[in-house]
């Protein structure tokens, strides 16, 4: 349990002064009521999307709150988690003055968003086991360090960040800790959303792009204290989650059978792929994965990558990332795609 934390000391002064933008539709989100809506300069002829979407994402919010056992005011939706992460930067970091900590090798967007927002990105390498190097991290922290990004399971390495390391950071760091859980649905340990009550400085982000199978609709989520969500809502564009996305997400999420079956199928395929990878002579190491991908070290990543492309298989060469020399990342596909990958891997053994 963390003591003494005041989120209002971290918010950018310009954001602190703002009131949330109230859109035309904020006051009347119940479209079933027999009312005449002449407030938003929309075209009145119904084609399914002629009205602005619900800026509060009410139906979706209710559904996610129930499924995740969260309060509705502790959830924020965005146009992918990339937008949610950008909102976090813009709420807390003063351009040209503040800084954030990220822990490579990790997801590339933290750096992109830091650069976009003119925020210094202080990089502290993970250890050999891809865990946070606590002492070096805290050497880098100063009074202007507003955010610290943890990705768990981490992309591209696939491992979970150890719980005691995360707790140490949550207790010691005086800024906001963002845990990016894009792959948590595949993992063997539970989400940190269950710990939000203990850590008022925690934001957990999740997405519908991976396990939920909806990368195309762009829906990301942040879970945090109601205070943090209220700050982020002030700067959120009112209609950032479009009508088609809200409808499709509600429909798809309701069907939890699909979700569970697809995850177990992906995990089965990961196991069978991993067993085959062990016997391939040019694969030197298979890193343990709690995600829907596997990172492997090979003899010559550029060569193996090219050979696979020639066989019609596209994977990700992660060799330019620190600590990831000669590594390739395989996303787990269907059983049939797995077979095709295995055939190709065996065919290029020279
Ligand atoms: C894929 C991924 C995301 C997803 O971002 P969206 O914008 O929600 O599609 C977020 N974080 C990490 C680490 C990822 O790998």
SSE blueprint:
Layout (H helix, E strand, L loop, with lengths): L12 H5 L40 H11 L6 E4 L1 H13 L6 E4 L6 H8 L3 E4 L10 H7 L4 E7 L11 H10 L3 E5 L21 E6 L12 E4 L2 H10 L7 H12 L1 H22 L5 E4 L6 E6 L2 H10 L5 E2 L9 E5 L3 H13 L3
Parallel strand pairs: 2-3, 2-4, 4-5, 5-6
Antiparallel strand pairs: 1-7, 6-7, 8-9, 9-11, 10-11
Helix pairs in contact: 2-8, 3-4
The structure holds pyridoxal-5'-phosphate.
Describe this structure in words.
- The protein is of the alpha/beta class and 350 residues long.
- The protein folds into two domains: 7-254, Aspartate Aminotransferase, domain 2 (3-Layer(aba) Sandwich), CATH 3.40.640; 257-347, Alpha-Beta Complex (Aspartate Aminotransferase, domain 1), CATH 3.90.1150.10.
- The protein has eleven helices and eleven strands.
- It has a seven-stranded mixed sheet with strand order 1-7-6-5-4-2-3, with helices on both faces. Strands 8-9-11-10 form a four-stranded antiparallel sheet, covered by helices on one side.
- β8 and β9 (293-298) form a beta hairpin.
- α2 runs parallel beside α8 (243-254) and α3 (80-92) packs across α4.
- The longest helix has 22 residues, at 256-277.
- It is globular and about 70 Å long.
- It starts with 12 loop residues before the first helix and ends with a helix.
- The mean pLDDT is 95.
- Bound molecules: pyridoxal-5'-phosphate.
- Residues 80-82, 107, 151, 155, 180, 182, 207, 209-210, 215, 220 line the site of pyridoxal-5'-phosphate.
């Amino acid at each position: 349990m963390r003591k003494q934390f005041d989120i209002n000391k971290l918010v950018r002064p310009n954001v602190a002064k703002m009131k949330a933008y109230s859109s035309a539709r904020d006051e009347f989100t119940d479209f079933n009521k027999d009312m005449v809506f002449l407030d938003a300069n929309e075209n009145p002829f119904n084609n399914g999307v002629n009205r602005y979407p619900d800026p509060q994402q009410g139906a979706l919010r209710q559904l996610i709150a129930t499924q995740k056992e969260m309060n509705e005011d502790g959830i924020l939706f965005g146009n992918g988690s990339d937008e949610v992460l950008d909102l976090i930067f813009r709420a807390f970091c003063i351009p040209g003055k503040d800084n954030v900590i990220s822990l490579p090798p990790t997801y590339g967007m933290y750096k992109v968003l830091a650069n976009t927002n003119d925020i210094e990105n202080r990089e502290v390498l993970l250890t050999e086991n891809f865990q946070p190097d606590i002492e070096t991290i805290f050497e880098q922290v100063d009074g202007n360090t507003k955010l610290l990004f943890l990705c768990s399971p981490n992309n591209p390495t696939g491992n979970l960040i150890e719980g005691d390391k995360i707790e140490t950071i949550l207790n010691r760091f005086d800024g906001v800790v963002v845990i990016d859980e894009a792959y948590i649905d595949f993992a063997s340990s539970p989400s940190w959303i269950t710990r939000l009550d203990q850590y008022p400085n925690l934001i957990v982000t999740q997405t519908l792009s991976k396990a939920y199978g909806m990368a195309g609709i762009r829906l990301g989520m942040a879970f945090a204290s109601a205070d943090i969500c209220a700050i982020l809502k002030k700067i959120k564009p009112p209609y950032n989650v479009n009508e088609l996305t809200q409808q499709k997400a509600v429909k798809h999420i309701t069907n939890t059978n699909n979700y569970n079956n697809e995850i177990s199928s992906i995990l089965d395929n990961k196991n069978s792929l991993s067993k085959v990878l062990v016997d391939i002579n040019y694969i030197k190491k298979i890193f343990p994965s709690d995600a829907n991908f596997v990172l492997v070290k090979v003899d010559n990543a550029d060569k193996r990558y090219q050979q696979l492309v020639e066989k019609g298989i596209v994977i990700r060469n992660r060799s330019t990332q620190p600590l990831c020399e000669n590594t390739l990342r395989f996303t787990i596909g269907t059983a049939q795609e797995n077979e095709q990958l295995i055939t190709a891997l065996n065919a290029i053994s020279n």
